[in-house]
Design a protein that fits this description.
The chain has about 150 residues and is an alpha/beta fold. Helices cover about 30% and strands about 15% of the residues.
């Protein structure tokens, strides 16, 4: 497994090299642990993605990991612009969002943005390690309801 390094607003990497389903599971579990440690996991998470390759697959797997950690998710039904995901985070009063996008990076990249509510509340970077990472089977359909 390649090393996962968080930047200013999340983590990005080259698809199939650093950015893989396994690494997405590791990062999602680290975020879930972080939310639990802060005592806000019960607020749920918004999960969205842009139109990049496998965005929907990464988002569905993220919902499965969050469900396994006991965290409800609000999954966007289709590719969604970043500002809409941020609006939904505020509207639902969620603990945060996991947004799959590589923004301005080339086509072979993807990334996770982890926005939190409130500009005065910066997020400490979750420690992404494989220790304690669990994956759980989730429901087959996530759209339109909290998982």
């Amino acid at each position: 497994m390649s090393q996962i390094k968080f930047g200013t607003s999340g983590w990005r990497g080259i698809l199939c090299e650093e950015f893989t389903l396994d690494n997405v599971r590791v990062v999602t579990q680290a975020i879930a642990d972080h939310l639990r440690d802060e005592g806000v996991a019960d607020q749920g998470m918004v999960v969205g993605y842009d139109a990049r390759f496998m965005g929907k697959d990464f988002a569905r797997e993220t919902v499965r990991v969050l469900a396994g950690a006991g965290i409800k998710s609000y999954l966007c039904e289709r590719d969604t612009p970043t500002p809409v995901i941020s609006h939904e985070l505020i509207r639902r009063q969620a603990a945060g969002a996991i947004n799959f996008t590589a923004s301005h990076n080339p086509y072979d990249y993807n990334g996770i943005k982890f926005p939190r509510p409130g500009a005065d509340r910066p997020c400490r970077k979750p420690r992404a390690t494989s220790k304690g990472v669990r994956t759980h089977a989730g429901r087959d359909r996530f759209q339109g309801h909290a998982a």
